[in-house]
Design brief:
By secondary structure, the chain is of the alpha/beta class. It has a single domain, classed as NAD(P)-binding Rossmann-like Domain (Rossmann fold, 3-Layer(aba) Sandwich). An 8-stranded mixed β-sheet has the order 3-2-1-4-5-6-7-8, sandwiched between helices. A hairpin with a 2-residue loop joins strand 5 and strand 6. Helix 1 crosses helix 2 and helix 3 crosses helix 9. The longest helix is centred in the C-terminal third of the chain and has 20 residues.
Length: about 250
């Protein structure tokens, strides 16, 4: 399906001209082009986003094909970011896509976050999430984080660009890295329906924060259970001893 300017006009009616303009002008950094990242990138392009920065060092495998919608059987063994860029440009050939076939690390995180206006965390490990949280806080960038496993997932947004004192991801998940890996990183297979649902909530956060419409997740976390058809919004309390957001920003 090709990008439709008529459909784009309908989106403008729903979100307003200013929000549609921002979707076109803002630079969206998507870290992780697996299940969540595939859906997030695709939905953003359909909404009218035109400047994407994709980061992932993984290669497409057969086990990805049941939930990572940008890839097909002929892409097995290829770079995810390069395949994703090509597929996204098939939707809208006018978009700009920067690809970084690399893992997000302490060496490149500052550079990559500096390039973006909005950071969307679609990574599958807490080490990357923790690093993104710290860098985005220090640089006052909007961060929308999510994770998924089996039937469940969560989404939280951190508008660090605001002047007020906002909580961060480490307020939500305090503790040592090994413990956090056990409780937050997905184990086993995940349903494509769950991935799609969580990714859509992530993209909806982008829309709400830039349009000023609806109720966003600032200071809250959305827990999604697709097996029981239940969603719960949990208030996030700022940790006064948080090593990230309760101390002076440092690189």
């Amino acid at each position: 399906m090709q990008f439709s300017s008529a459909g784009n006009g309908a989106i403008t009616q729903l979100l307003g001209e200013e929000a549609q303009k921002l979707l076109k002008e803002l630079r969206f950094l998507i870290v992780g082009l697996g299940g969540l990242g595939s859906f997030v990138a695709t939905e953003l392009v359909y909404l009218g986003a035109q400047k994407l920065i994709l980061v992932d060092n993984d290669r497409v495998s057969r086990s990805n094909l049941n939930r990572q919608i940008l890839y097909g059987i002929h892409d097995v063994g290829k770079s995810k970011v390069l395949v994703a860029s090509r597929r996204l440009k098939e939707i809208n050939p006018f978009i700009s896509v920067e690809t970084f076939d690399t893992k997000l690390t302490k060496m490149n995180a500052n550079y990559l976050v500096d390039k973006a206006d909005v950071v969307i965390d679609c990574s599958d490990n807490f080490e990357t999430k923790r690093l993104l949280n710290r860098v985005c806080f220090n640089k006052r960038k909007m961060l929308i984080s999510g994770a998924v496993g089996s039937w469940e997932g969560w989404v939280a947004s951190f508008p660090f660009y605001k002047d007020e004192d906002v909580s961060c991801l480490e307020c939500l998940f305090p503790g040592d890295l090994e413990t956090l890996k056990e409780i937050t990183e997905p184990a086993g297979q995940t349903l494509v329906t769950t991935v799609g649902a969580v990714a859509t909530f992530q993209v909806n956060e982008v829309i709400k924060l830039i349009s000023g419409q609806g109720e966003n997740l600032e200071g809250k976390t959305l827990i999604i259970d697709t097996k029981t058809n239940q969603c719960a919004v949990v208030k996030l309390t700022k940790n006064p001893q948080c090593p990230v957001c309760s101390s002076s920003p440092s690189e």
